[in-house]
Amino acid sequence: MAKIFVTRKIPERGIEKLKSAGFEVEVNPEDKVLSKDELMAWLKKGSYDAVLTLLTDKLDADVFEAAKGSVKIFANMAVGFDNVDLAAAKKAGIMVSNTPGVLTDTVAEHTFALMLAIAHRVAEADRFTKAGKYHGWEPMMLLGTDLSYKTVGILGLGRIGSRVAYHAAKGFNAKVIYYDVKRNEEFEKEFGAMFCETPELLLAQSDFVSIHVPLLPTTRHLIDANRLKMMKPSAYLINTSRGPIVDEKALVEALKNNVIKGVAIDVFENEPAIEPGLIGLENIILTPHIASATEETRSKMAELAAENIIAALFNQAPPNLVK
Ligand code: GLV
């Protein structure tokens, strides 16, 4: 019977799917991230056929070396796979898969939760109200900013970026502009969207900038001190992609000096650490990498990761093979 290792407790539907395919499933009994040494010790001890991993597992050359000859696939339960050394996986002859699609709507929703929360000062107003500071309606109290009819700049027009663009255009009558390495003229026609040849052109025109690029060597610190200065002082920055795309130290300085109006981020440069200067500022909202964290979506992600394993172990092409 094929044996699967799951690096941490995940929604039951994923486990059930693996078991009903006839596999023996072993889940890390401790609900914590495994260190690299711990993961390698599990791999050596268990001689597993497949491993279901999370974005917090660092899968590097040593891990693939430890898995070689036994593990056929590492199925990452995430759309992102910047935690995986793909070249090392290839060298070891091990497949890697991810879980795209099933989380698109949820991450787009969370992006809007952040966008609206920062523009309408929801977290600040909640703190204010709970502190007993509300003593009656005031015409000038906690004034925010509208999203409707504003310019929303999408950095990265993949699945999630496109979904955010859809809601911005259709739900909020926003003007959508975008930057991507690939131009999409069909999308432009459908949403009246405008392509920006460079990130700089997008930053200078947007009232809201939403980041949806993957983390790659070319996108690390895509938003740095210089690019923050190119944004309008009235603009907001939202990041639900990956933390290292934004230089967090530069972000602290920009917020302290009112270079931009506000920021709402779900991801951090050195997770789970957070640049201390970000905490305590009023013009920022922080959520702990939960953009895909709904009951429905996390179950679908677990199921899809399981489907990738099942396909691989039945000698079929996994639906979400990462190359
Ligand atoms: C979450 O960040 C994911 O990549 O799925």
Strand content: 5-15%
SSE string: EHEHEHEHEHHEHEHEHEHEHEEH
Rg (CA only): 21 Å
Distinct helical segment count: 12
CATH topology of the largest domain: Rossmann fold
Q: What is the β-strand count? A: 12
Distance between the termini: 28 Å
State the main characteristics:
323 residues, alpha/beta, Rossmann fold, 2 domains, 5-stranded parallel sheet, 12 strands, globular, binds glyoxylic acid
Provide an overview of this structure.
The two termini are 28 Å apart. Helix 2 (36-46) packs parallel to helix 3 (61-67), helix 3 runs parallel beside helix 4 (86-92) and helix 5 (104-119) packs across helix 7. The strands form 2 sheets. The chain has a 7-stranded parallel beta sheet with strand order 8-7-6-9-10-11-12, with helices on both faces. It has a 5-stranded parallel beta sheet with strand order 2-1-3-4-5, with helices on both faces. With 323 residues, it is α/β, with parallel strands linked by helices. The relative contact order is 0.15. It has 2 domains: 3-102 and 295-313, Rossmann fold (3-Layer(aba) Sandwich); 104-286, NAD(P)-binding Rossmann-like Domain (Rossmann fold). 37% of the residues lie in helices and 14% in strands. It has helices at 12-20, 36-46, 61-67, 86-92, 104-119, 122-130, 159-172, 185-191, 199-205, 225-230, 248-256, 295-313, and strands at residues 3-6, 24-27, 50-53, 73-76, 95-97, 151-155, 175-179, 194-195, 208-211, 236-239, 262-265, 284-286. It is globular and about 70 Å long. It has 12 helices and 12 strands. The structure holds glyoxylic acid. The site of glyoxylic acid has 6 residues, from loops.
